[in-house]
């Protein structure tokens, strides 16, 4: 019986080869893309899931009620972790950690590595296996380090006999010897933390100076709770601790007019689960977990499968009219509903099985280009897990049951006489039209999303950031020499080059450089009896000139003024926060009044942070006790490539052992919205594929509709109807469906896109043109798809059309 079902199914597929091919091509493309998208989404959702203690491990953060509103801090003071462990019950393990680059030297070989400074308990909380060396404690002493397997290969060319060897680490301005105590397995691709070397936290250059300081915050804290201790219990346990250790800060906030939270508190510790860390954000004073990106990818995969399944259902119903007499005859000969149902279902299973196999082959061929295009480290191992395979098989079973089962059920319910007469209930068109509308609703939403996403990216790319991003190169200072010496040597080396217009330095980058780092420094002080918070930036001479920053008042740092080490340059937002009519008269005492700084200049606000954020207060210092971490070189607009090569050559003379990682600031800015570009690429690809698949179905349905109305077309042509009128008659019904889809899709797209844009302090205006463009594009594509077939039918000889009956 099964063999007979399969044989009839194969014959019917061959008989209707055009529609079979359309179904198989559409389904194969859909399955290939859905597999790749699902693989990417599951990889994103798997971040930090490999930690054995993920259910009891957390990142600590502090909510603060300030005069500016609620604020959240994940940076903590050095003495906080030991004090929490000692004074607050419920903590099993607690560890401090900070990510920084470190320069490693071994036998004249220099490498800049991603370092993680951690407490020993870090390895009790997180799962990073040790391959060689001390498996109990990878960092047994203060002068030991742990390196990854790949790092061992980089430094020594092998992992054998590496444990026990000594390397030198340059931290801050000092170089110290460290012994390799262990070699760790490579960090998984789905880890939020990616390090090449691990160093004891107590060896951090800022540790000793901040060991007992509570108002200097620069590192996150992770902890594991005791068994049976809930997050709520822990947070309750920290209330007396917070009231004691943050008493002065709380009193300052109260004095300045801060409003307590709903529980009447000004500061409260909270915990963010480690499994949520990759998706956590702390903007606008709220900690939230946002998995929109992976769920959006899954959603696009789902709608693509839905579109081709809808095509399959529509074509199956439409084609079934050709088989009514066959069904009637089989029913006359004794076929029962179940047999007819299984026959139709078998045909859908054959098509879907072939499509899945072709989709798997296609997805495998497209894997590497896909990973490059979407910048993902996902692999097929993410979709070959038993649970995923079972879910996929179950989904396939349900899809085929619906896609093949509905037409089968419709046919098998027909009376024998109706089937023999070739009469099918007209109600089938309602389902067909509903599915076409739904397909185009999805397509229009995706097209609208594509247009808005690209519009937002272009808005961010072309926005005036307040500094010269096209002509300035930033270079991480990752060598051994003193940072100020390197900047001065660059000036001297490049001063004879007419294409070099300026050289300066700072302790932070603009955008995200090739070294991948992006950080900021905050500081607070009292001014006229109230607390002030500002971003702090250490700069060298000519910083404003090199970046083309605009001076609103006063002057920039100048070599002719010896007192500039005790001077400040602030931005407009900082000047507004200080509130003085004449900002150049401001004197700010710091270090408990031991030092007084004078404001000498005000610069126009510029985007020194991500473009999505409001511009915050900024204070520029020029203190030689604080290191610079980046050099900036401004080049002339002509001969840009030649100037870049000259900078690279100069760097090779000054720091021959250090890798040159220079990049233009516009490249750095582009890297800060890499996620948006990936989203735009995925949504664009989804919209193109969605509209293409919808049109395959629309084209096939239009062919069947034209075939059903062949006689009508011939009669209209005989009585004088023009080709255009006949083509319009056949096309307008489909265009009405696209119009209905546009009316439904536009408010849905507007709502979700408007919500998404609220994440950006500066964003493109949500113009009606985006949606009109999406609707016009969908209509045009549908018109071309259906019109090509209807025009051909309308142009046919009416005598031939009438003979078809």
From TrEMBL:
GO CC terms: plasma membrane
InterPro entries (alphabetical): ABC3_permease_C, MacB_PCD, Macrolide_Exporter_MacB
Keyword Transmembrane: yes
Pfam family, one: FtsX
Transmembrane segments: 21-43, 292-319, 340-367, 387-410, 431-453, 682-707, 734-753, 765-786
Record key words, sorted: Cell membrane, Membrane, Transmembrane, Transmembrane helix
Residue span, ABC3 transporter permease C-terminal domain: 300-414, 687-798
PROSITE patterns: PROKAR_LIPOPROTEIN (PS51257)
Membrane topology: Multi-pass membrane protein
Domain MacB-like periplasmic core: 30-236
Gene Ontology MF terms: transmembrane transporter activity
Compartment(s) where it occurs, according to its Swiss-Prot or TrEMBL record: Cell membrane
Entry keyword Membrane: yes
Name of protein: FtsX-like permease family protein
Source taxonomy: Bacteria, Pseudomonadati, Bacteroidota, Flavobacteriia, Flavobacteriales
